[in-house]
Amino acid sequence: MARESNLIKIVGKSNYEKLRSFKCLIVGAGGIGCELLKDCILMEFGEIHIVDLDTIDLSNLNRQFLFRQRDIKRPKSTVAVNAVQYFNNSKLVPYQGNVMDNAQFPLNWFKQFDIIFNGLDNLAARRYVNKMSQFLSTPLIESGTSGFDGYIQPIIPGKTECFDCTKKETQKTFPVCTIRSTPSQSIHCIAWAKNFLFGQLFTFDNDSENDNGNDWGTDDQAEIERIKQETGELSALKNIITAQDESRIEQILKKLFVDDIEKLLQIENLWKTRTKPVPLSILIIEKALHNNSGAHLNENSLWTIEEQVNKFIQSIKSLMLRLKKEKIDIEFHKDDKDTLEFVATAANIRSFIFNIPMKTLFDIKQIAGNIIPAIATTNAIIAGLSTLTSLRVLNLLCYAATKSATDLNMAFTAKASNLSQDRYISNPKLAPSNPYCPVSSRVNRGIIQITEMGLSTISLYQLTNLLREKYIFPEEVSILDTSDNRLLYDFDFDDLEGKKLTDLSLGEGSVLLFSDEEGDGTDLKFKKPIEFYFEIASGPLENEILLPQIESSYITARRSLHDETSEQDLREPQDKSKEDQTIILDEDEETAPENKRLKRPLPEESADEVTEEIRKKNKISEPPAEDNVIELD
Amino acid sequence: MITGDVDSSLSADEIALYDRQIRLWGMAAQARMRLARVLLINLSSIGTEICKNIVLSGLGSLCILDSHAVTEEDLGSQFYLSKQDVGLKRLDAAKNRILDLNPRVNVTFDVQDFSSKPLAYFKDFDLVIGTQLTKNEMVRLNEITRHFNLPIYLTGSNGLFGYIFVDLIEFHAEEQKIKSAKATAVGRISDSVEVTEVVEKKDEEKPNKVYEIVKTKHTYKPFVEVLSKPTLKNKLSRRQSKRLSPSVPLTLALFSLDEMQDELTPQILKNKALEICERLEVPTTILSNEYVEQFVVQRNVEFTPISAILGGAVAQDVINILGKRQTPLKSTTILDGITLDMPMFEF
């Protein structure tokens, strides 16, 4: 029997031929991507394209099974494709690049695929690929994992929920006063050290710490004044750093860990219900300053307060030296030893002062570096579910034809996520698109073909008129460049009207949102906005531009984005796993498994990101943008 | 997150390599895994997945026992094999590729047939995994693991459908969870699970947050007993039994008809499955003809996505019990690859 004989028993002979003619795209060659590639090859997709911008890192090797120690620093997509050659029977095309780069990957390039698999680690790219899938009506299988947890969601444009149909969780933030005055958990001290202190001392551009317009989390004017004053005083400390004056390191320590704490203690209101902080002992500081030993400390054991202070001083010295040599801002990075040690020891010293348990360097690295745990097994299961489902999405199962898109199932880990002891996977049916989704429901889409000549001769004014006439929009319209949320035109902003499209940096891959700002006069009905993708025409065009045919329709009662969100919240969460939960579980939010208690910081590689929300309410959670879990404001 | 209990026996290199998983299950579990010796029988499609997952995870040693030669069909579902390998022993073909995966794991290869092995062969392992075996082989292997008091995982697929049987004999699990309004009570919670101890623990940073460390005892039946008198009486609600995947009775029915070869017809299988529905006390109406036909056509068929799911689930459970983390799988898990349903049963 031949290699494909088993596959034919599952899909049938004619569907097997179809499969051989299909092209699939895998976005991401990481934890999920390596698994997807292997599965797609053995499922005999005719052509498999795989995109990743990243290179291989040591910490990938516990799960990304196509990579070896010798591959570290090489590009993931090409190494993966080389590694599978011995068992490959498909045409494979690797790309090193960012899938959101529309010069390398224009919409036209996406057109060739019959199905797209996401194996991504960040929200921006997930949203982008979702939008491409909506533009082209190409089915997308979205997925993600985080530790033991994982999910897949097939997205059939026009028929089922898209990635943006459910609200994505945003990262946890803390009020300013918690970080700057009254920390009660080590994460508050880590946020202080990483997002406030580090930036103040080692970067020159301090826009990030603008004390105005913040959520202070307090009305106590004395406290707010103190915080503002403190920010000012820190610039003095920065001079010590830039002057590379080691003899004044003592001042830094005394200011941060003694004087500032004493000032805080004077605001008595703060300490009525809280344990008072205890300024760091001068003795410890002085002893540490005279101790020059660079003892090697185990990053997995808890250091004493003396060791923390010693390390803190050493890390300042190293960073001072680097600032002098490199002459550019130093940025925090979890794998940059000096920056990590500075943040960890500063956070721990502050914790010590505020009677909060200190943490090991290993643990602080996870919080400050937004590291998401990741394992081979969850990725294998999730990629298996994705590729398995692709057969139903493409209607290739010979015994189980797909009658309706909403008969398809999404899936998420139930047992491993401690949601059920009665099922390993939960498999709710797909929901239809959310009628309030700004991506899949409340917009029409089309592609504008334009020539280079058109771009340099057609003005924004002319374009606006063409669109208004073609789609019968009223006088008051707006045009937004969605790539950077730049308003190009609306009824009281016509400054750019006379500019040619090239002058507005519009070209291949630009996406414009054209909206009715007037309505039918009753404020109840508006023309449905249209999103246009600009594509450079391959040949000459009459009038240099070709507008797509779009059935122009109305939407009722336009809402602000805020309203749409609350509208979504009102929708019945469909938790099909509830009935299966045993007494070990509980629907009480508080019973979330211990290891997920912290709203997971960031995906370093969170293709990989699911939180309580998804498991509880079956909504997909969201990987916040990289590297800023612990925002101050 | 890791707290306390740092095991110094892991080297800095190992900690760096296994960083993303140590952050999930801790140093101590990783160190315990390094001591384990696992026997994997059959480098099938699922066996290949299990092997990959276990070797990546940094388990101590893995012995793979497989006497089969590579067939053309194997190429369609096993990624350690290449076209040039047809006719060679599977293990000879896959060996170097597996060894290259993670040099820290001691992998050994044995090309003999498992039925030729003397009883004593098995006692040197801490855990046995059998994949894509016949019913008789599964029963025999389970007798051996019972004899030596070893945990066993038996897994296989029938095309879009698959199963996992687990016999840990008796297993004590410990899990920490946030205490809910109602405290967990000590006592039996099902035929095979008993809560033996509940200890409260306060969060060291947030004193109003209280955890429970729940210790449970899980008892398992041997595979042969699971097959001989499975029942779901009083275990499913009416609605649940109506919605039970037909793959559950059909998987069990195929085991009962294990001796039959090509003479197996949809009608024979359906009759057997109807019998099993009655024994399980679930409605016979769940059995659709499409499912029955698929089970006949796809019997013993290996399919990569199904193998990836089953192999992932088995390997993770093995890692969990060796690292002593999380509650283990129930005795029987069935995967329906059409609906992605994957229920677990005690039977």
Automatic annotation (TrEMBL), chain A:
Transmembrane segments: none
Record's keyword terms, sorted: ATP-binding, Metal-binding, Nucleotide-binding, Ubl conjugation pathway, Zinc
Source organism: Zygotorulaspora mrakii
InterPro entries according to UniProt: ThiF/MoeB/HesA, ThiF_NAD_FAD-bd, Ub-E1_IAD_1, Ub_act_enz_dom_a_sf, Uba2, Ubiquitin-activating_enz, UBQ-activ_enz_E1_Cys_AS
GO molecular function annotation: ATP binding; metal ion binding; SUMO activating enzyme activity
Pfam families, sorted: ThiF
Bias (Acidic residues): 624-633
GO annotation terms (biological process): protein sumoylation
Protein name per the record: Ubiquitin-activating enzyme E1-like
Residues where Zn(2+) binds: 162, 165, 437
Amino acids binding ATP: 28-33, 52, 60-63, 76, 121-126
Any single GO CC term annotated in Swiss-Prot or TrEMBL for this entry: cytoplasm
Pathway annotation from the record: Protein modification; protein sumoylation
Domain (THIF-type NAD/FAD binding fold): residue spans on this chain: 8-439
Family the entry assigns: Belongs to the ubiquitin-activating E1 family.
Span list, region Disordered: 561-633
Residue stretches of biased makeup (Basic and acidic residues): 561-581
Active-site positions on this chain: 177 (glycyl thioester intermediate)
TrEMBL record, chain B:
SUPFAM superfamilies documented for this protein: Activating enzymes of the ubiquitin-like proteins
Cited InterPro entries: ThiF/MoeB/HesA, ThiF_NAD_FAD-bd, Ubiquitin-activating_enz
Protein name as annotated: THIF-type NAD/FAD binding fold domain-containing protein
Organism of provenance: Zygotorulaspora mrakii (Zygosaccharomyces mrakii)
GO biological process per UniProt: protein sumoylation
Cellular component annotations (GO), alphabetically ordered: cytoplasm; SUMO activating enzyme complex
GO molecular function, one term: SUMO activating enzyme activity
Domain THIF-type NAD/FAD binding fold as annotated: residue spans: 18-344
Cross-referenced Gene3D superfamilies: NAD(P)-binding Rossmann-like Domain
UniProt feature coiled coil, ranges: none
Domain of life: Eukaryota
CDD domains xref list: Aos1_SUMO
